Amino acid sequence: MARRIPSNNSDKLNAAGLDGNGELQLDRRSFNAGTLVAGTSALVGTGADTAAQEEPEVIVVDDFKRNDTFYHGDMWESLNPGYWKVQDNSLRRRVRTRGDRARATGFPYHYRTHNRNNGVMDAEYITRPPYGMIWRRDWQLTGAYSIIARFEVLALPTETPGFDTSPGQAVMGICFGANTTMESWTGGAKRGDACWFAAVRDNQTFGVYDHAKDTPTTATANSESECPQLKAGDQVVIQLTVRPEDAVSASVTAELRIGDEAVTVACDDVQQDLFAHGYFGLVSRGLLDFKVTQLDLIPFDNTPLDVELNQLRLAIPLGHTLQQDDDGNWACRFVTVMRDNGDETEIRISTEEKPAEGWEAVPAAGSAPIITNDFRRATSIVDVTLPANPGETDLYYTIWKDGENVTRDPRSGYLGQKDYVGRLPQLSAPYRLCGLSCHAIHGQFDGGNAGKFQENWVHDQPALSAYEHLDDYNFQIMVWEDDIWYLELLLYTTSVDDAYLQIMTAIAGPTSRWQVMRHWNVLNPGDHDYGMDDVKGPEQIAIRNRDDLGQDPAYMGRNFQIVQHLVRGEENPSATENPKRWAAWKMPNQDFTLMMIDARLWRSSQDTHIWATEGWGGDRDIYDRTDPTRSLLGEAQFAWLQQVITTDTSPMILLTGLNGMHTVWEPSPKLQRNRVVADYAGWVKAGCDRVIELLATRDGVVSVYGDVHNGCIMTNTDHNLIECSFGPIGRTGGRQVKPGFGRTMVDHDERPLTVHALYHREFQSPDLEKRTGPQYWNFLEMHLDPTGDGAIQFRVRNLIDAPTDAPRGGGSLSTAREKTGRPVACLLPQIKVIPLADVRFQLLDGRPLRGIRSNSDGTLPIKGLVDVAAGESIVMTTVKGDQAFAQVIKTLPLDG
Fold first, then answer.
1. CB of 338 closer than 8 Å to CB of 313
2. Per-residue pLDDT at 750 exceeds 80
3. For residues 617-639, average pLDDT
4. Total of domains in the chain
């Protein structure tokens, strides 16, 4: 039912609370007398108190009278917050943002492999900004209620290159009946799971619509009507009222008022629990520029929820930044993210979890300004000086914003609310690390009701009891690998604000925040973390520097800045230069090194003519994946890796970031033009062969990675090189195993392997036993002990597992350092050097061979060298502090 009230019906308009200028002048009595609700007694129910019927309470939900900010306030939540900002005492629609032409593309191969547009990616495209919904966290409405929103139109959509501004695209109104405050963007949900919204459009229509579809779709057959054309300067009031008809059904009435005219539409016999119960808020779509000056609610029997938020979204102690200065002081870098702007972040660090005189008495270890700019949202890069050697003791920290301790997180995850301060675990042997990957916190969930826009669609973790036993593992370091936060999975983020929301949803929920802030962290991002599936090679540089390749370069550029800012702690990273993310983190006791490798951004192209033959059609191969000139890491990074492997003196080295050197997954890499297999390091055969050869030139080197959505532990038996994968966490899609997969096998490139464990979406062992039990969300438990015999242990764990449970995947790996790497080809003479010194070996021409740290008695913990013949003269240098010695020694035969 729809009706239009003529402009001369001024008595009714005034009775409903609109003054002569079209401004809303609502009070309790005027609401009761208004035309919209024709008898408020029906709203409050039969037999209700007469006075209550006459004077329903009108609550000002928000009048937006606060300082200008990108942040909308604690009680507002949005999947795409970049649509909105607080400005000039109003909630302003932010019409254009950096990267707002972001497009769901993936790498160009998707157009062929997914059969899109006849396999040809069109570089010219039209952007149609989807819905931007912003919800109140503190109200979940049921029964009778009425919502009143006041708007002012600032400018109508104008023709904008690259955007669809056709009439009807733009929307402005009230959304209601949501199951989750994360509903927004495109539709695609089942009817009844999506919200409804009462909105005016820029094509002279007003109505009640269903968000289950991408385009405005009427909620019922007659829930749309003609209305006056919007124009700049219009004062607009929309009132949405739900009136129960019985225990099941309700009527939904929406009224639009523009100047002296009003339009009413109504939906009768609406199922309350599906369409009227839930969160409410505001909705926008298209390029209509407007502001909201006030939002009111008549709640009747509804009461607000008690919602308290953490003002500190997250603090990340970056492990790779830990170092000791010339004066012996230890320092590291933190990245902090606040909810809103401020002046300064301060970090206080203590050797006590509960300092005797309180945290107020602990001096600041470091401070930094809180910055918001074109790629930052209330972040700080804080360099701190630690009060003690982190190799000798645990350290604890609190985060302060403008003099207030904001460390606490009052939110409750599935494990309950946790009261904690930050912790930096002692970094000493045995080293205990946790590998995490493919971290998606929406969709699949073992608690049910996780379909699109259902109440658990976005959740704290994919399993109700995820990480219940995490503290029992006593991990020191969280290794966040490839697909840490899936920057484009929920939506292609069209603003910096949207990007931060996605990142914080993934790693700053109640449980993940606790994980990050109670451990040292290494973050090694992958393709999805930059906001584009399969992005790699020189093409990703081109995408950030050119505007004719079918993706918004501003979107990709600011994503690269955000990622580099958060994972490396850089103040002002480049949007266009290729980031040099490789790093080696040596522990304080000099006995273990954790290396981060980038196997995506510096590799050679999959195809020299990729844009001509792949993205825009064509079917001929340019050259083969086994071409010997192919590079996996780029020359600069490989040279660095070679230098570290041949000179680092730690007995054990763990590498992260080489995603799948051994080709055990399907499709076969011999399918030259397949975008899936080309995404993994193993597709670059020559590059992988070179890396494998290098890593096995010494013992104690292990490679671990994420991204493939499978947990697996294997050993290359030619080189005794261990390679492990881990994940997913909330995102299935694990690659199929190759034909002939088993405990003893060869990969597609004929490398012999022993597979110790396989935890797969279909299988639970290398014997391909069908998987049973819970969903296979997993992490990798890593133990590396450089002392004694050098114990190395790896286990695949489900998120719900305790350390005492049997490992997943049909096995685990337990070995010793000396059993890794290729066998030595010669022995070293029995020599004693300075105790606990750095000892390095090199050929007479200066080429480095390897490094090691001497034992406490001055002996060497290695017997010989790999790939060095007996009788070879080599140079041995010994360095400790300001002491240095060099001598030439001659290697011995293995039977000498």
1. yes
2. yes
3. 78
4. 2
